[in-house]
């Protein structure tokens, strides 16, 4: 069995932040999103691969070297060329060969033990999907909803307009070899290139599918709100590297402040703030926010916002904002 982490999307819902950086490499606490997933996958002992695209390949190389994980790179450079997830899985199988596969979305974080999940798959040797109750029928419309009889899936509907349940399929799947190899057949029939529709198609073609229900937490990091909420959950304590800090500044934990940052004047940082390398924060209040490297913020208040790298923000109050890289925004002097 092989483990394949899907990290080839262009994350358009988080643009402009993810125009220049892949979503799985966004910080979540002191680590990146995908590092939490890698820690879970490592427990299984499976040979592990990351599926990404040509545009973001260089971003994943340091991670690949650090964790000794091979990249499977699809030949696309922009959203319009992108393979869907099923197409990317087929591309990976073409490279890695036929086998049982553990498939994990690279932008979900979860409490599920993948070791227990794989053990259950090895008992069944049938398609197994991880399912989670989001507790909200409106929210369930975004996902594939699942009805179980015992632990067998008897009904599956992708993105229903009127969900029958709030139990949904997460981005975690285990496929036996005889099922995963059907992705080519599925795509040739012109079906939608997405995992939920593949599961629905399998069920309609009488394939046995089982659900593995788990509690705890599950975050699909698809929007700024869900990203910031997950960031708060995962930031349990402060991580402060070598920085310059004014004696008049105040740090309210938990925060992450990376090397080379300068916290000047009467700034207040935190709680739940991420300040990246070489940022300059002067006479500003920043909380519930993520500030990427080489950004300058002066005389401003930033709350529940994400500001990309190399920005300059002066004399502003920003709330629930997304600011793209290299932006210069100020009000007066």
From TrEMBL:
Organism lineage string: Archaea, Methanobacteriati, Methanobacteriota, Thermococci, Thermococcales
UniProt xrefs under SUPFAM superfamilies: Nucleotide-diphospho-sugar transferases, Trimeric LpxA-like enzymes
Residue ranges annotated for the Nucleotidyl transferase domain, each copy included: 2-234
GO molecular function ontology, one term from the record: nucleotidyltransferase activity
Keywords associated with the record: Nucleotidyltransferase, Transferase
Keyword Ribonucleoprotein (UniProt): no
InterPro entries: Mannose-1P_guanyltransferase (IPR050486), NTP_transferase_dom (IPR005835), Nucleotide-diphossugar_trans (IPR029044), Trimer_LpxA-like_sf (IPR011004)
Name under which the protein is recorded: Bifunctional protein GlmU
Nucleotidyltransferase found in the keyword field: yes
UniProt-listed CDD domains: NTP_transferase (cd04181)
């Amino acid at each position: 069995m092989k483990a394949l982490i899907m990290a080839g999307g262009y994350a358009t819902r988080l643009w402009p932040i993810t125009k220049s950086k892949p979503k799985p490499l966004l910080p979540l606490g002191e680590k990146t999103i995908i590092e939490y997933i890698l820690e879970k996958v490592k427990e299984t002992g499976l040979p592990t691969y990351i599926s990404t695209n040509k545009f973001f390949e260089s971003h994943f190389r340091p991670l690949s070297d650090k964790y000794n994980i091979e990249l499977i790179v699809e030949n696309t450079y922009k959203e319009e060329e992108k393979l869907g997830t099923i197409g990317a899985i087929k591309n990976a199988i073409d490279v890695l060969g036929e086998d049982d596969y553990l498939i994990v979305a690279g932008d979900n974080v979860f409490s599920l033990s993948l070791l227990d999940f794989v053990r259950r798959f090895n008992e069944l040797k049938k398609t197994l999907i991880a399912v989670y109750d989001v507790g909200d029928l409106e929210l369930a419309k975004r996902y594939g909803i699942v009805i179980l009889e015992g632990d067998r899936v008897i009904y599956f509907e992708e993105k229903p307009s009127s969900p029958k349940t709030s139990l949904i399929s997460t981005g975690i799947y285990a496929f036996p070899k005889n099922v995963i190899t059907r992705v080519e057949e599925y795509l040739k029939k012109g079906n939608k290139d997405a995992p939920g529709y593949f599961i629905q198609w399998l069920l309609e073609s009488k394939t046995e599918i089982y659900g593995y229900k788990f509690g705890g937490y599950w975050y699909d990091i698809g929007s700024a709100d869900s990203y910031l909420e997950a960031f708060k959950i995962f930031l349990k304590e402060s991580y402060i590297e070598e920085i310059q800090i004014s004696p008049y500044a105040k740090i309210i934990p938990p925060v992450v402040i990376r090397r080379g940052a300068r916290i000047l004047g009467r700034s207040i940082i935190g709680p739940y703030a991420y300040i990246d390398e070489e940022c300059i924060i002067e006479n500003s209040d920043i909380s519930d926010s993520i500030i990427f490297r080489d950004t300058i913020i002066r005389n401003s208040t930033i709350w529940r916002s994400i500001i990309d790298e190399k920005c300059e923000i002066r004399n502003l109050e920003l709330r629930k904002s997304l600011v793209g890289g290299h932006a210069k925004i100020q009000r007066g002097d």
